[in-house]
Amino acid sequence: MHYQPQLPVLQCLTLHVAAGQKLGLVGRTGSGKSSLLAALLRTTELSLGQVLVDGVDIRRVPLARLRAAVSLVPQEPVLWSGTVAENLDPAQRALPKDLEDALCKVHLDKKLDMGSDTRVEMRGNNFSLGERQLLCIARCIARHSRIVLVDEATSCVDGETDALIQDALHRQFKGVTMLVVAHRLQTIMDADLIAVLDAGKVVETGAPGQLLAEQTRFAALCEKAPLSSLLSL
Question: Where does this protein have coiled-coil stretches (predicted)?
Answer without folding.
Answer: none
